[in-house]
Amino acid sequence: MTVLYLEALVAIAIALGLLMAGAWLVQQKTGNSGWVDTIWTFSLGLTGAAAALWPVAGAAPNARQWLVAALVVAWSVRLGSHIAARTRHITDDPRYAAFAKDWGADAPKKMFVFLQQQAYGSVPLVFAIFVAARAPAGELRLQDWLGLLILAIGIAGEGLADSQLKAFRENPANKGKVCDAGLWRWSRHPNYFFQWFGWLSYPVIAIPFSDPLSYPWGYAALLAPLFMYWILVHVTGIPPLEEQMLKSRGERYKAYQARTSKFFPLPPGG
């Protein structure tokens, strides 16, 4: 059993590394690093679905495997399509453009290394999907449907936040202003929050409620929300985005920061 899980880890790492090498090629050819996040999202969906449907002792995928595969595909298609639509209307992603500017002449090489780090850092996400799909129970349980509900809330909340921001930006009267409407009054990054929230579905499915110690591998699924929180809040999500917003919106964004929760939705202050 342990060998199977180690083999899965290696296969997931290789697959993600190759797919993100492809993302680097696209970024180098187009000059638009917005395609990086598009490809990353679809790559997670592809490798996640493959990991979920990985045969158990040569048997056909069971109901839980199909459910988990459907969850990651639904997330990937919704978010990937949204990022792709946004990328078609920009010349470059300002976050990655800032990295490239700092890297100077070494930008192509350092971008490749950065994207490979992103690929291998994403292994816990796909591995969480793998272990959730293999939760040792026969028929679907209540907690499987709870996992489905959690992901549905995550997708719906993220989609609502994205649509509210899009509507705000498309209104000419809001040019130069900071979006402070709807979910954006409660969190400075509600789209990131709901993206993170959706990843809670996999540990909910993976760790048996009735006998929490019966499937030790299930606890590996906790790595998914932990990793997603770290990367969104401390690495490629909030930090570069807020740095850009402070440059473009200045005091307006500082005031927004002062009255609005950074990540978790909370009643606005001030």
Automatic annotation (TrEMBL):
Membrane-spanning segments: 6-26, 38-57, 63-80, 119-137, 192-210, 216-239
Keyword presence, Ribonucleoprotein: no
Name used for this protein in its record: DUF1295 domain-containing protein
UniProtKB keywords: Membrane, Transmembrane, Transmembrane helix
A Pfam family that the UniProt record links to this protein: DUF1295
GO cellular component terms, semicolon-separated: membrane
InterPro entries given in the database record: UstE-like (IPR010721)
